[in-house]
Write a structure and sequence with these properties.
This protein is of the alpha/beta class. 30% of the residues lie in helices and 23% in strands. InterPro entries: AAA+_ATPase, ABC_carbohydrate_import_ATPase, ABC_transporter-like_ATP-bd, P-loop_NTPase.
């Protein structure tokens, strides 16, 4: 993404934002409340298209004007509210909008079989008691697992996770971070939106900081202290100068 800007009336939510996401890489997007993180995610997913700027995918310019455009490129997202239908069962939620079978009769057997083949459903030690129970009866960790399984159903190339560990316990969080590492090892690009810098330091390769709708630094996680990241998030350190990353992820000024 280059020079991405987004306005809401007189409010400029994003100003000339740049962001690079690569296959097999976890990039954490961090910033204080109101920094523009949610707006940037909406731009990437087509929920709120950018007013200005260029988005490239596989080296070619693309326009993401609606969610279907993002899905067609292989971009999937799991939002903090999970967007699950509580009255549907696990299988129904995983295949919501992508049901198998005809218009009148769904292939429930094939959908349940496909759901059981998704290894993510066993990855967080939240084994589901029954794939046919309503999602409303599941724990927070189990619901998170269902939402991620739905996102991975279409075998995306980029997975956006919005505060994924907010509702998880300590053990489940550790297992979820292991899952992110496995997804990275599969070659997926992962954009992790999080306020938890412990999670960021545990799994992210790079950190992109937003402050008041602008870039305020790209950092390599292994070589950057948590204090430096917090300083950029709060605006105590001003890194909002012209910058870009080279192919190895370094900041050039």
């Amino acid at each position: 993404m280059r020079g991405v800007s987004k306005r809401f009336g007189a409010v400029r939510a994003l100003s000339d934002v740049e962001l690079d996401l690569r296959a097999g890489e976890v990039v954490a997007l961090v910033g204080d409340n109101g920094a523009g993180k949610s707006t940037l995610v909406k731009v990437i997913t087509g929920v709120g298209p950018a007013d200005e700027g260029v988005i490239e995918w596989d080296g070619r310019p693309v326009r993401i004007a609606r969610p279907r455009d993002a899905q067609g490129l292989g971009i999937a997202s799991v939002y903090q509210d999970l967007a699950l239908c509580e009255t549907l069962d696990v299988v129904g939620n995983i295949f919501l909008g992508h049901e198998l079978g005809g218009r009148v009769v769904l292939d429930e057997v094939a959908m349940e079989r496909r759901a059981r083949e998704l290894d993510v459903l066993d990855s967080l030690s939240t084994r589901l008691p029954d794939f046919r129970v309503p999602v409303a009866t599941l724990s927070a960790g189990q619901r998170q697992t269902v939402a991620i399984a739905r996102a991975l159903l279409g075998e995306p190339r980029l997975l956006i996770l919005d505060e994924p560990t907010a509702a998880l316990g300590v053990r489940q969080t550790a297992q979820f971070l292991d899952l992110i590492e496995r997804l990275r090892d599969r070659g997926l690009g992962v954009l992790l939106v999080s306020h938890n810098l412990g999670d960021v330091k545990a799994v992210a390769d790079h950190v992109a900081v937003l402050h008041l709708g602008r870039n305020n630094g790209f950092f390599s996680v292994p070589t950057t202290s948590q204090e430096q990241i917090v300083s950029s998030m709060t605006g105590a350190t001003d890194n909002a100068v012209a910058h870009r990353r080279d192919r190895w992820g370094e900041v050039l000024r």
